[in-house]
Amino acid sequence: MMVLYSGTTCPFSHRCRFVLFEKAMDFEIRDIDLYNKPEDIAVMNPYGQVPIMVERDLILYESNIINEYIDERFPHPQLMPADPLMRARTRLFLYNFEKELFIHVAALEDRSARGDTKRLDAARIAIRDRLSQLAPLMMKNKYMLGEEFSMLDVAMAPLLWRLDHYGIELPKTAAPIQKYGERLFSRPAYIEALTPSEKVMRR
Ligand SMILES: N[C@@H](CCC(=O)N[C@@H](CS)C(=O)NCC(=O)O)C(=O)O
């Protein structure tokens, strides 16, 4: 059976939990206390981070890599586009999001940066601006790729859920992003994947 080592407030673990619940499959989620990490986390992931997925002798880390594996192993519903060209474009988008957006999410989650107001505020502003730039796209699209829910939406949902929690306020012009978020949050798998600590992040 697939086991996911997951942080109860970690947005990257949240992505993997979301995908697990989208698929009809057996899995186990093990909550990891990041303030008191078990030693085997560093053995399984040299970067000492969650999420980590273990299935028999396969150990994976990095949320997007884990999610692509789950998607290929349990293809229904398929979250990466079937067409190779769209698949490649989706991977490129995921990469760009990591470089331009989630690098700042990682800064907000970095416990060693707590108290570094300058760095945290810079991260908040970068996230606000990058998300605002996506607003025109979401004015015409139901999901990131158009009509179909995909891995890009999975990657984005945990961040949109945490905006209040992170102290990020989007401008009024970014209303299509908020609406898009509500669309994602209403998915049954999304609701099932939330931990008790995540449920209280948003009113
Ligand atoms: N790029 C990684 C980021 C994972 C990450 O940043 N995880 C954080 C928690 S949200 C972590 O495990 N930090 C280790 C620690 O706090 O000791 C991914 O997508 O999986």
TrEMBL record:
<dbReference type="InterPro" id="IPR040079">
    <property type="entry name" value="Glutathione_S-Trfase"/>
</dbReference>
<dbReference type="InterPro" id="IPR036249">
    <property type="entry name" value="Thioredoxin-like_sf"/>
</dbReference>
<dbReference type="InterPro" id="IPR050983">
    <property type="entry name" value="GST_Omega/HSP26"/>
</dbReference>
<dbReference type="InterPro" id="IPR036282">
    <property type="entry name" value="Glutathione-S-Trfase_C_sf"/>
</dbReference>
<dbReference type="InterPro" id="IPR004045">
    <property type="entry name" value="Glutathione_S-Trfase_N"/>
</dbReference>
<dbReference type="InterPro" id="IPR034341">
    <property type="entry name" value="SspA_N"/>
</dbReference>
<dbReference type="Pfam" id="PF13409">
    <property type="entry name" value="GST_N_2"/>
</dbReference>
<dbReference type="InterPro" id="IPR004046">
    <property type="entry name" value="GST_C"/>
</dbReference>
<dbReference type="GO" id="GO:0005737">
    <property type="term" value="C:cytoplasm"/>
</dbReference>
<feature type="domain" description="GST C-terminal">
    <location>
        <begin position="83"/>
        <end position="203"/>
    </location>
</feature>
<feature type="domain" description="GST N-terminal">
    <location>
        <begin position="1"/>
        <end position="78"/>
    </location>
</feature>
<dbReference type="InterPro" id="IPR010987">
    <property type="entry name" value="Glutathione-S-Trfase_C-like"/>
</dbReference>
<comment type="similarity">
    <text>Belongs to the GST superfamily. HSP26 family.</text>
</comment>
<protein>
    <submittedName>
        <fullName>RNA polymerase-associated protein</fullName>
    </submittedName>
</protein>
<dbReference type="Pfam" id="PF00043">
    <property type="entry name" value="GST_C"/>
</dbReference>
